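Hey forum,

I'm writing up a methods section and want to include a predicted complex as supplementary material. The small molecule is phosphoric acid mono(formamide)ester. I've pasted the protein sequence and the SMILES. Can someone with a working setup run it? I'll credit the forum in the acknowledgements.
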Amino acid sequence: MTHKALVIAVGGNALIKDPKEVSVASQAEAVQESAEHITSLIAAGYTPVVTHGNGPQVGFLLRRAELALDELPPLPLDVLGADTQGATGYFFTRSLRGCLAQQGIEREVAAVVTQSVVDPEDPAFAAPSKPVGSFMSEQEAREHEEKDGWSVREDSGRGWRRVVPSPVPVEIVECEVIRSLVDSGCIVVAAGGGGIPVSREDGRLSGVEAVIDKDLASALLASELGVPDLVICTAVEQVYLNFGTPEQKALDTITAQEARSYLEEGHFGKGSMAPKIEAALNFLQAGGQRAIITSLEALQDAVAGKAGTCITN
Ligand SMILES: Nc1ncnc2c1ncn2[C@@H]1O[C@H](COP(=O)(O)OP(=O)(O)O)[C@@H](O)[C@H]1O
Ligand SMILES: NC(=O)OP(=O)(O)O
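Reply by user p_vandermeer:
Happy to help. Structure tokens for the complex are below, copy them as they are.
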């Protein structure tokens, strides 16, 4: 892989500026801000593969589809995941092209509809864990649980959310296409929402009902591409020990072994920071050099080793 390629994962929640204001305009604005930060890195000589979450967005689409059931047939989660890849990929390519043009940088930009293979026997299908859609009060969540059969869970002190199955991705189907595009200098948006969940049987792919964790998919893509750095951008600039308590302590540079110990000690939110740490550890174990967790605002400084939390072997 030529160019200074790296994978940058942008969280679905980081693409929502205000959970109470989820209009298309507001989502496009959040992507625009992300694109501005990513463009600074491109201007500094990097070729990012941008991956993004879709937890809020896929949940909104699922709810829309359910509310329209009197008129229209249901939509399965793989198709809704594909829809979020399309819309978010469109926002990203539109914004990135605009930002690059403004800086006089001539680079191609493309979003690749990406499928992630999962094991249909993954135990995650029987234990929904991926938060999607809006935040609710516990009372609203319990009502949906009873009336609509939703699985619901508290999400990192931010409210209650619907949860859906989230099997582990084992292969990124379009990896070689993404590699060719990156090798040609193209800025690629890929593996949105962790990739569209599919299973493979006798060489044939079929969609499955799930939402894949985009950090795990990003780590897999980064290691399959063989890039040295995986950067996970989220709402916090650093990872903390004792997060949310008066004793919270920011982590600058830690080893994979230290990260694993802190994970086992329960320092990282289940379904929020913990999967990011697990993804970072997977990437380092597969030969990656640096896994960085930071905010979009601190992206450039973090890649330069001056901000964020950096995990190395
Ligand atoms: N130990 C921790 N350090 C920092 N943030 C944490 C920690 N544990 C939980 N979190 C929470 O995890 C959030 C990131 O997870 P999430 O919002 O699910 O990610 P995404 O940006 O991918 O949607 C942070 O904004 C923070 O609220
Ligand atoms: N698919 C996924 O992991 O989305 P979020 O980043 O929004 O949780």
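Some notes you might quote in the supplement: The longest strand covers residues 4-10. The chain has nine helices and 17 strands.
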